[in-house]
Amino acid sequence: MNRLTIIGNWKMNTTPESAHILGYNISKILSDGGMGNIVICPPHISLDRVAQAVAGSSIRVGAQDVHPEPSGAFTGEVSAPMLAELVEFVIVGHSERRTLFAESDEFIAGKVTASIEAGLKPILCVGESLEDRRAGRAESVVSSQLLACLANVTDVSSLLVAYEPVWAIGTGEAATPQISQDMMSSIRSALRSGFGDAAHAVPCLYGGSVNADNVQSFLRQPDIDGALVGGASLDAESFVAIVARASEVAAD
Ligand code: PGA
């Protein structure tokens, strides 16, 4: 496993005030650090307040999305250079963006390159639908998402990849450790085919109904370096419990 990475995706939850409190509470409990890379991703409107709440701790902050263009007439959007003044990471290509907002691999590819150019670390999400899995094309769908979204990338040193099967997100039905390991191994070979040895250092995370009870089963897989956590990251105690359980595996 590369260095342990646990990321909390708060989605469209929390107000600026409650986000500040949640960030502060997480950073207080995890203040001793040394537990790997812990990143929390609040809504855009709360990034500044959460960054202030966790300042001085080992917690880092990420955004949940970014627009590919650096500036211009894109009402309501936020660009990579704007985010880079506030945060270190950004989630791109989450399945909710792909399905609810019809984002294509090509559009997501623009977000990945814009993020890297601005000095952000993109967390590229990929994952198949239940229909894809039932049709036996899960691995080909995910590999093609991955390579299409990285089409314009030459340097993967700041990249993270999250495998999030759509059917496991927010359903309470996590993938089995074996399914996630098989997919992660396929993701790693796709990365190697595109980027050679540099691919080894790319942290690969599993996401989809991760909680404190199942996180260790994923992290014990040889190709899984961490987790992207949605629902269970919205409560300080439950997020910290996931980090603590994950750290036990990292320390083995
Ligand atoms: P979940 O969400 O942990 O609530 O399933 C994961 C995600 O969407 O990143």
The SSE string, one letter per element, is: EHEHEHEHHEHHEHEHEH
Shape: globular
Largest sheet: 8 strands, parallel, barrel
Oligomer: single chain
What percentage of residues falls in helices of 4 or more residues?
Answer: 40-55%
Average pLDDT rating: 95
Biggest sheet strand order reads 1-2-3-4-5-6-7-8
What separation lies between the terminal Cα atoms? 11 Å
Task: Please state the CA-atom Rg, rounded to the nearest Å.
Answer: 17 Å
Low-confidence stretches: none
The amount of beta strand, in percent, is 5-15%
Number of strands: 8
Structural class: alpha/beta
Which small-molecule species are bound to the chains here? 2-phosphoglycolic acid
Please work out how many helical segments DSSP would assign. Answer: 10
Quickly describe the structure.
The chain is α/β, with parallel strands linked by helices. The chain has 10 helices and 8 strands.
Question: What does this 3D model show about the protein?
Answer:
The protein has 252 residues and is an alpha/beta fold. Helices cover 41% and strands 15% of the residues. It contains ten helices and eight strands. The chain has helices at residues 16-29, 47-54, 80-84, 95-100, 105-117, 130-134, 138-149, 177-195, 215-219, 236-251; strands spanning 5-9, 37-41, 59-63, 89-92, 121-126, 160-163, 204-207, 226-229. It has an eight-stranded parallel β-barrel, surrounded by six helices. Helix 5 (105-117) packs across helix 7 (138-149). 2-phosphoglycolic acid binds next to strand 8. 2-phosphoglycolic acid (PGA) is lined by residues 9, 164, 169-170, 207-210, 228-232.
